[in-house]
Amino acid sequence: MFDDSADMLGMARFAMEFCAIESCGKCTPCRIGAVRGVETLDRIARGDADAKPLLTDLCNTMKSGSLCALGGFTPYPVMSALTHFPDDFNTMKEAAE
User: Fold this and answer.
1) What is the pTM for the complete model shown?
2) Model confidence band, residue 1 (pLDDT cutoffs 50, 70, 90)
3) How far is CA 30 from CA 9, 15, 85, in A?
């Protein structure tokens, strides 16, 4: 549970980073997907709005293709943050428009 001051982009990145660190490496969606998820969230943080659909696709692949609960459930907080806190994922360019 977070208050209104929480940076949900940062929390989503934390979830992906945790998965990348804790992954056993047995399945590709978790092993590589979590690392790419961190990179994609970093791209969004730098202002690359085109990375949002890529993150959604990556999360869907991780949910359906991971062999264990770690990789299968890591996308849920990321997708929840994207859905319920879209302003935290807006780039500076989008905010100016």
Assistant:
1) 0.88
2) confident
3) 20, 12, 24
CATH of the domain at 40: 1.20.1440.230
Whole-angstrom Cα distance, residue 51 to residue 44? 6
Cβ neighbours of residue 68 under 8 Å, at least 6 residues apart? 24, 26, 27, 30
In sequence order, which residues have a C-beta less than 8 Å from that of residue 19 and are 6 or more positions away? 30, 34, 37, 70, 71, 74
- The dihedral built from the CA positions of residue 66, 19, 2 and 93, taken in this order, carries a sign that is negative
- Quote the pLDDT of residue 59: 97
The stretch 79-97 carries a mean pLDDT of: 78
Q: Give the mean pLDDT of 26-45.
A: 95
Q: Identify the CA nearest to 78 among candidates 63, 93, 67.
A: 63
Please state the domain count of the chain: 1
Residue 22 lies in a domain: yes
